[in-house]
Write a structure and sequence with these properties.
heterodimer; A: about 350 residues; mainly alpha; ABC transporter involved in vitamin B12 uptake, BtuC; two-stranded antiparallel ribbon; 2 strands; about 75% helix; about 0% strand; globular; B: about 280 residues; six-stranded mixed β-sheet; four-stranded antiparallel β-sheet; 10 strands
């Protein structure tokens, strides 16, 4: 066949178009730049203290729990959903672990697994309501957030299980708080767990068919359905996995605070969404990455930490995070609009 | 069983050269509540031809195509593929039998890459442990095959197959969708309004692409509102009106305005029903 009778589609790619194409292919580049520029500015203002391994380790510890929830939230937002109940699932799981180990007297290992299973069950409930009853995720998880919080209060009786009790009878629940000292660095096992999970989820999303299906379902559910993907099965499994990750986060939470408190996780729902959005994942689904979410969580952590070290009032931390969210969503909207 | 065989021979009418239809339908009916989308629609597609299907809005073209593609289950009627009666529960079953459909919406996820979209829902996994237990995708194989399919259809100008689909032009997207259909469709490709969203130059390229597909021995069904496009490349044309096929014509034996007149009911259909088939 000669080249004359074959159809050719020429590509008119100007420099502007090429930048846009690059941004489409590498959505993580913007959050990455924000992180690098933010770090540069803070190191200028705060000085050497900011980059001291002690401070960097502290920030990593501070973002571990929210980072864990943000990983779960990423999976859900990629499907164009939202989960307002992640924080409540985490706390319910940690309460379940503590109560089963210390009040019911189950072996702590069993209590740990059962607590993660409670998280998975909560996620499965969300998934069932969303896929079977076809209710919007926002409403479902707003409802289950209240319900799970009620369970937390009911099961814990509003009581905190103290650090010493757990250390004496169920030390494994505090295992995630164990710190590894590497020179001046202090890395908790919870942080290691979070980073390991991020690696696992990255592999799942980018190297398996299931991961591509999660993107497709969030990007264009009708296209996914016509391609033979069972969109309901994908959605349900994503909420189930997210629930299990929140259960794991409950374990990390106990390690972080040492105790089992029914009060933790009040702002965790919104913080997890903040990290995901600042990390460049689109609330409209189908666009985003695990790496972006990690960077998003770090951006939030470093901005809070840097502004605090710079001696600014806490209110300016909130102000800065708010600005970042609006800029991130605005950028995503702009990128979507010019591509259509 | 003998009675069924008799029915088969009655239902399937060979063309002038004696070929059995590759895909045929008899008396398809579908109602959505009180709205009757198909009211006894018939369909015959012969090997290696481009069949145009035209009709006014609401003539039941889309419903018939959806039924043939497995996207909609007809209330009654029969579908025959290569001499066998078939019943598709979903698009995947139709696809498994070699019927590929390029829907008007293209059914592509815009934020995914060309390769991802080509293999969406039928990804290759790596052989051995990594594929079986770690579920690892064989990205090298998918890339190589994607490149092969695109260049076979003269789409080699799409340099970067890892480009996300939304950065492609409308014609390029259509091209990728057709390439996906060709890559897997061994018998029949159904194209629903492939030029509706395109400009003149890009429409031209897509029409050339369709001729290329026929050259490869695949039967093509082309649904379109664009009469000049249909009359230019179709070998035969089915005219649908009010949920059924009212005429089969050959584009070289009827004028475009007569076809439109039949389509809108302004002119009675030709009485010689065999005209289109011979």
């Amino acid at each position: 066949m000669s080249s004359d009778d074959t159809p050719h589609f020429s590509e008119h790619a100007g420099p502007g178009r090429r930048v846009i194409n690059f941004l489409h292919g590498n959505p993580t580049i913007i959050p990455f730049l924000v992180l690098v520029i933010g770090l540069a500015i803070f190191s200028l203002i705060v000085g050497k203290r900011f980059f001291h391994p002690f401070n960097l380790s502290l920030v990593l510890q501070q973002v571990t729990v929210i980072g864990m929830l943000a990983l779960a939230q990423t999976l859900i937002i990629l499907t164009a959903g939202i989960d307002l109940s992640v924080g409540a699932i985490m706390v319910l799981s940690s309460v379940a672990m503590g109560q089963m180990a210390l009040t019911l007297g189950l072996p702590p290992e069993i209590a740990l697994l059962a607590g993660i299973a409670v998280g998975a069950a909560c996620g499965a409930l969300n998934g069932l309501l969303i896929t079977w009853l076809r209710l919007p995720p926002f409403i479902v998880t707003l409802g289950t957030w209240s319900i799970f919080n009620a369970f937390v209060q009911f099961w814990s009786g509003g009581q905190t299980i103290r650090q010493q009790e757990i250390a004496a009878d169920a030390a494994i629940l505090q295992w995630t708080g164990t710190a590894l000292q590497l020179g001046a660095w202090r890395l908790t096992l919870g942080s290691v767990l979070m980073l390991g999970l991020a690696g696992l989820l990255w592999y799942m999303l980018n190297r398996t068919a299931y991961g591509r299906h999660i993107y497709a379902v969030g990007n264009d559910p009708e296209a996914a359905r016509l391609s033979g993907i069972s969109t309901r099965r994908v959605l349900f499994s994503v909420y189930l996995i997210a629930g299990a990750i929140c259960g794991l986060a409950g374990w990390v939470l106990i390690g972080r605070i040492g105790a089992v408190s029914p009060l933790g996780g009040g702002s965790a729902n919104l913080d997890s969404i903040t990290a995901v959005v600042i990390g460049g994942t689109s609330l409209f689904g189908g666009r985003g990455s695990i790496l972006g979410t990690l960077i998003g969580a770090l951006i939030v952590g470093f901005f809070r930490n840097g502004l605090a070290l710079a001696g600014l009032d806490v209110l300016w931390q909130e102000f800065a995070i708010g600005c970042l969210i609006i800029m991130a969503v605005g950028f995503d909207q702009w990128l979507r609009r010019i591509s259509n | 069983m003998a009675a069924e065989d008799l029915e088969l021979s009655a239902a399937l009418i060979p063309d002038a050269a004696g070929h059995q239809p590759v895909l045929a339908a008899r008396d398809l009916r579908k109602a959505y509540g009180r709205v009757v989308a198909m009211d006894g629609a018939d369909f015959d597609l012969y090997p290696g031809e481009i069949l145009g299907v035209i009709g006014d809005n609401g003539a039941g073209k889309s419903s018939m195509i959806a039924a043939l593609a497995g996207a909609v289950r007809p209330d009654s009627g029969e579908i025959w593929l290569a001499g066998e009666q078939v019943r598709f529960a979903n698009p995947m079953e139709a696809r498994a039998k070699g019927i590929e459909t390029v829907f008007q919406t293209l059914a592509m996820a815009p934020a995914l890459t060309i390769v991802d979209n080509l293999f969406l829902g039928r990804e290759y996994r790596k052989p051995g442990f990594r594929g079986r237990w770690l579920r690892a995708l064989d990205r090298g194989r998918m890339r190589a095959e994607a490149r092969k399919h695109l260049s076979e259809l003269g789409l080699a100008t799409i340099q970067n197959i890892d480009q996300v689909v939304e950065t492609l032009s409308g014609g390029q997207r259509q091209g990728v969708a057709v390439a996906r259909a060709c890559a897997f469709g061994s018998r029949v490709i159904i194209l629903d309004e492939p030029t509706a969203a395109l400009g003149v130059k890009e429409s031209r390229k897509v029409l050339d692409l369709i001729l290329d597909v026929r050259r490869r021995g695949i039967s093509v069904v082309l649904i379109s509102h664009n009469m000049p496009h249909v009359f230019e490349i179709a070998d035969r044309v089915h005219i649908h009106r009010l949920g059924r096929r009212i005429a089969q014509v050959r584009p070289d034996q009827i004028s475009m305005s007569d076809a439109v007149a039949i389509m809108t009911g302004a002119m009675p259909p030709p009485t010689d029903d065999d005209q289109g088939r011979t």
